[in-house]
Write a structure and sequence with these properties.
The protein has 330 residues and is α/β, with parallel strands linked by helices. It contains ten helices and 14 strands. It has two domains: 225 residues, P-loop containing nucleotide triphosphate hydrolases (Rossmann fold), CATH 3.40.50; 103 residues, no CATH class. The strands form three sheets. An eight-stranded mixed beta sheet has the order 8-9-10-5-11-12-14-13, sandwiched between helices. Bound molecules: adenosine-5'-diphosphate and magnesium ion. Adenosine-5'-diphosphate binds next to strand 4 and helix 1.
Length: 330
């Protein structure tokens, strides 16, 4: 979908996911686990979209689809308006693989333990036929960008701390000059003080290079400061998406309210008495309730909610909620 701007120009989203569905373990006569169900999401140049939700709600699967590490069971991934899902032109897919990078929670996935880290960082450039001299130049640039000394290149992954290794993984993602980075819980394994350093670094890099981030986290506090918009996922679906400030100040979906009320970081403006404790267990994605997927745990749910699935509906400009009773707390 394109947006018409005030000056009449049409801006294309950089990355567009539309109607994405993903099932694991689907066999003839046997439905699989529906990890992602009908998700649409766009990412504009230089923007950060936060993606939050409990463990198992499908965030990583969606992130892997956005980078085309997985091909979705349903729906389409478009990059700069071009389809990357079904038989994309190989030149388009090649450009996409360079432009859309991913950083994982565990940096060891991007660093070969048996090679000096410089080799791992250069590897995507080597694969692309970049000359040795240009690789060396880019390597020193990206090491500096992530706050490491050029001498780091010759050392091995085990010689670095967890925070430094995540800087190295980021350097590898930055090497091919991407326009999008999917960050999947990039700070979740780090100590709080180190987390803050990495978040600041991500922000600096974005301001300088105008890279768009899809920032995945189960921690709302972490995405709050970086994201222009935040999408809340529950059991494979987006239940609410809004400009960050609106989501945090005036959440419309009961699940978002519950998630926000459990943010127990210092300075969170939640009174102890306001804490919402969800009843019941998180259902399995193999057994999503009929009607609203949140109905089995929602204190507002009635027969309508249990029988009819609410569509994502715009409540205010750019603020969409999938709830039959948006905005009500009780
Ligand atoms: N490779 C896989 N094979 C089978 N099931 C998977 C696989 N990856 C994820 N799942 C399942 O899909 C659901 C979503 O997982 P995931 O996307 O990793 O969620 P999140 O990142 O939000 O924790 C979970 O139920 C998970 O067990
Ligand atoms: Mg995950």
């Amino acid at each position: 979908m394109s947006d018409t701007q005030l000056d009449g120009t049409v801006s294309e989203p950089l990355l567009e996911l539309s109607g994405i569905g993903h099932e694991f373990g689907r066999r003839p006569g046997h439905s699989g686990i529906r990890a992602v169900d009908d998700v649409s999401l766009t990412l504009n140049p230089g923007e950060t979209v936060g993606l939050v939700g409990e463990s198992g709600c499908g965030k990583s699967t969606l992130g892997r689809i956005a980078t085309r590490l997985y091909r979705p069971t349903r729906g389409a991934v478009r990059f700069e308006g071009r389809d990357m899902t079904h038989q994309p032109k190989s030149a388009d897919l090649k450009a996409f693989r360079r432009a859309v990078q991913m950083v994982f929670q565990d940096p060891n996935g991007s660093l070969n333990p048996r090679l000096p880290v410089g080799s791992s960082i250069e590897e995507p450039l080597r694969a692309r036929g970049v000359s040795r001299a240009d690789r060396r130049t880019r390597l020193s640039q990206v090491l500096e960008e992530v706050g490491l000394d050029a001498t780091a290149a010759a050392r091995y992954p085990h010689e670095f701390s967890g925070g430094q290794r995540q800087r190295l993984a980021l350097a590898r993602a930055l090497a091919p000059q991407p326009s999008v980075i999917v960050l999947d819980e990039p700070t979740s394994a780090l100590d709080v003080s180190i987390q803050a350093q990495i978040l600041n670094l991500l922000q600096e890099i974005q301001q300088r290079d105008r890279i768009a981030y899809l920032f995945i986290s189960h921690n709302l506090g972490v995405v709050r400061h970086l994201s222009e918009r935040v999408a809340v996922m529950y059991l494979g679906s987006i239940v609410e998406i809004a400009p960050s400030q609106q989501l945090f100040e005036a959440p419309q979906h009961p699940y978002s309210m519950a998630l926000l009320s459990s943010v127990l970081e210092p300075g969170a403006d939640t009174e102890p008495g306001e804490r919402i404790v969800l009843k019941g267990e998180l259902p399995s994605p193999a057994d999503v309730p009929t009607g609203c997927p949140f109905s089995s745990r929602c204190w507002l749910a009635d027969d309508h909610c249990r029988s009819e699935r609410p569509a994502l509906t715009e409540q205010a400009p750019g603020h969409l909620t999938a709830c039959h009773k948006p905005g009500s707390r009780s």
